[in-house]
TrEMBL record:
<dbReference type="GO" id="GO:0015630">
    <property type="term" value="C:microtubule cytoskeleton"/>
</dbReference>
<keyword id="KW-0966">Cell projection</keyword>
<dbReference type="Pfam" id="PF03133">
    <property type="entry name" value="TTL"/>
</dbReference>
<keyword id="KW-0067">ATP-binding</keyword>
<dbReference type="GO" id="GO:0005930">
    <property type="term" value="C:axoneme"/>
</dbReference>
<feature type="region of interest" description="Disordered">
    <location>
        <begin position="176"/>
        <end position="205"/>
    </location>
</feature>
<keyword id="KW-0282">Flagellum</keyword>
<dbReference type="GO" id="GO:0060271">
    <property type="term" value="P:cilium assembly"/>
</dbReference>
<feature type="compositionally biased region" description="Basic and acidic residues">
    <location>
        <begin position="39"/>
        <end position="58"/>
    </location>
</feature>
<keyword id="KW-0963">Cytoplasm</keyword>
<dbReference type="InterPro" id="IPR051437">
    <property type="entry name" value="TTLL_monoglycylase"/>
</dbReference>
<protein>
    <submittedName>
        <fullName>TTLL3 monoglycylase</fullName>
    </submittedName>
</protein>
<keyword id="KW-0206">Cytoskeleton</keyword>
<keyword id="KW-0969">Cilium</keyword>
<keyword id="KW-0547">Nucleotide-binding</keyword>
<dbReference type="GO" id="GO:0005524">
    <property type="term" value="F:ATP binding"/>
</dbReference>
<dbReference type="InterPro" id="IPR004344">
    <property type="entry name" value="TTL/TTLL_fam"/>
</dbReference>
Amino acid sequence: QEKKIFTVQGPYPVIRSLLRARGWVEKKLPSTGKIGSQPEKHHGSQEKQLQEEEGGEWWHEDPDGIHDLMSRLVRDQVPYFIWTNQHSTFNCQLLQDQVVNHYTRVGAFTTKEGLCLNLRNLPWFSQTDPDTFFPRCYQLGAMDEQHAFIEDFRLTAARSLLKIALERAGDTLVGMEQPLKSGEGPGKSPVPHPMSSTGGSGPPLSPQLVEEALQVCGQHLGSLEHADIDGDTPSPRMTGTDWDRFLRDHYRVVHEGARLVLSRAQQERCQVLLQRLAERLPQLSMEGDHNVWILKPGAKSRGRDIVCTARLEEVLQLAGCCKTKLAQAGKWVVQKYVERPLLLFDTKFDIRQWFLVTDWNPLTVWFYRESYLRFCSQPFSLHYLDPARHLCNVSIQKQYRLAQDRHPQLPPDQIWSCRQFQAYLAQVGQAGAWDQVIVPGMKAAVVGALCSAQDLVRSRKSSFELYGADFVFGEDCQPWLLEINASPTMAPSSAVTSRLCTSVQRDTLRVVIDHRDNPACPTGAFELIYKE
């Protein structure tokens, strides 16, 4: 009569324990069927954490069989609360007013392909520019997307050549943002960023190479400022053969140390041109000068099959980009790699940030105040593009050993809480970065991604869904959204994640059960950040 019957499918012992403690009865699933239960891992540390924090009575193994008995008593009843690890395990058309932890058609923003395509529509819904928080991205299965990526790769190579020319000439980019010195801190001496090389040692290349880069970047600036519409006769553009040679020379400069020869006048033109491009291109600073891109399968998770590369031909070959393999290429997206990330003790990290959607019409978004960082096992370097240095996913990093000279302040389990990160920022003189830059930037990115996909998701009044967004930060602490995950893992990979995953599940129930019935109820660490 109180509609306190629930069903759980998947590895969610915390949800089960929390609902039982509230007086709910579980309708256990049969071993086969549409929702069919699968053997679950019992994360005892999470249930122990709950017992210590709440002080209630918990049934870990149901020694008296009381819950099996109660489940049999409600076997013919309809569950009113359903928590599963994927929406395909139930038939939405058969649901009435049951509360379910999924929406359908969320692939519009929870797949790499969906996020790539739909964020481009954001300017129709918001004044926010997606280029300020989402690295530019292309879906390689469409020929026009493929051509746009090739053009972007070439333009980025030209810009990076100008940056290298200035750096090796000893100039400073006036007006460029000053980065947070990520290596500074107790017991740490500053280490030069990979971009700060001071000169090449290889044979000099023709001065014409810099002149070509200046011409290409000037033409691009003209198109950005629309000067190409009503200006003078345009300069001749480079052919495909010209670009092949240019990219080979660019690679020699970046990776083989070939020296550049340029005049003082060219140095000044480089500086002015990059300053003007920085006003038009929000990603100019973070894109670096190695022209590294990251190739991702469009619908996979946990870092599977992701590759970093700085060669155009490698991207096209790996993705199978040719007219006879467009169907295969359609499974891949390629995205500009953040070459100048904020590092902690020379090590890359990302952050898992939870948020909750309780309605799509009107769009209602809750942001979790707690989050956690995931570290790579090897020090960051753009000269080595292996996963141990560049992919922070727990499932990837557990395959690698920690670096022998790893800084002692880095956690052995490769996880920090956001509070530990905030303490670090305070130590290096950036105490305000979390509240003033990082959190507002993550909130804006989350809301922007949801607004861009809102019309594509199937709304349902009794549903809700918890998501996990992954961010990296630039040297200026600016957040860059990488992806959004449906059904984010709740498995405790460390002491930090055991505590936080327990907390976010408990607070999710507070929002979707308690707050739904009584808006005055506390919502834990969830903060309502957006409601249309």
